[in-house]
User: Fold this.
Amino acid sequence: MINIPKAKIGIVAVSRDCFPEALSVNRRKALVDAYKAKYDESDIYECPICIVESEIHMVQALEDVKKAGCNAIVVYLGNFGPEISETLLAKHFDGPAMFVAAAEESQNDLSDGRGDAYCGMLNASYNLKLRNIRAYIPEYPVGTAEECADMIHEFVPIVRAVVGLSKLKIISFGPRPLNFLACNAPIKQLYNLGVEIEENSELDLFESFNKHAGDARIPEVVADMEAELGAGNKKPEVLAKLAQYELTLLDWVEAHKGYREYVCIAGKCWPAFQTQFGFVPCYVNSRLTGRGIPVSCEVDIYGALSEFIGTCVSNDAVTLLDINNSVPADMYKEAIEGKFNYTHKDTFMGFHCGNTCTSKLTSFNMKYQKIMARSLPVEVTNGTLEGDIVPGDITFFRLQSTADCKLRAYVAQGEVLPVATKSFGGIGVFAIPEMGRFYRHVLIEGNYPHHGAVAFGHFGKALYEVFKLIGVCPDEIGYNHPASVPYRTENPFA
Assistant:
């Protein structure tokens, strides 16, 4: 995927000066060897300059990992560790930091070979809190070299997301459509996250689009679209305009991203877009999102932000869907009941007009937008991508600044069922355990809009940690509670 960072994690070992330094030296080497034996060694960098025992060592180590181009660090407690110096590493490093600790190795060496990092992790966490430092600490942060290597590997997608946000610009073209307050959210939290935003009028976009008329690159983009669509190219007459629009967006990104490295777009698609541009942008949005440049619909700024996070975490294409309609009872009985372990209320349909990329559809046709064509000439609604979404594991999630300006999020894992939707647009039959309760007590109670980001796979663990690390209070991260765990707002007598 383009437009997302590559994680490079500096491993810095620490040691308390009254413990044998050799413990941290040898355990760091074993950790690095364990990671390289199992994972991509380019993910990590072993800081060789020193074992950090003092503030001077801390400065030396920071200079070394920065020079090596690291965008994250792991503070590795090979023994008890120096609680001041080790937490200063996280304070002064400009990027996410993780803390893990070495488990004891053998009952045959619990004298000079005992490191007490189990204890040291407690002091490290206390000092992190004293300094108001948010660091990533795994669920159980003490382990063997192999176990700690696995923990670092789980840190990689978290690093991509957090680093990506710190260098992200959201480009929006608005304003939001009339009667569409659901996607209107305070932008102050974007700045709190370190995200930049550039808000533009759709008139600015229209002017730029018109200037791209006759662009010499259009035939090449049209040919690429034809190759991608194949037999699904049901509206070839609109491809030149769609190619012109794609080039407009890509050129805008290059001209406007400024000092930021990564970009996503909150785009406009109605009500005046179709009549003025002469098409709908769904297919173009799908193409850019499929490459790693998420484009949300209906000027959904936090939807675009959520898609970008999902792209970084999954290292794959994502989509943005309406949590749209219930599954008809006859469809549930015919295609789901008895075949899958879901109640009717666990199921729903996720839909959007046509923004899901071709690689995430079982089959596809580029057609007209049925909803808009009910009130407009069909020819100005061409450009949407229709097809059933591929079956398999998914994660439905969203990061949102709600009406009260609080930063909230939700994460729910489930699947797209291999059930024909018998409908239109980019659509799938979704199943999430206890979805009915989640719908009521997280989505409705939390005042979330109807748009949800979808990552193709189960990424709840990483997304939950990303949300915590960027400052979402754990109490404000909703998830689909099992039947045995009531929601705070759930009526116990219902």
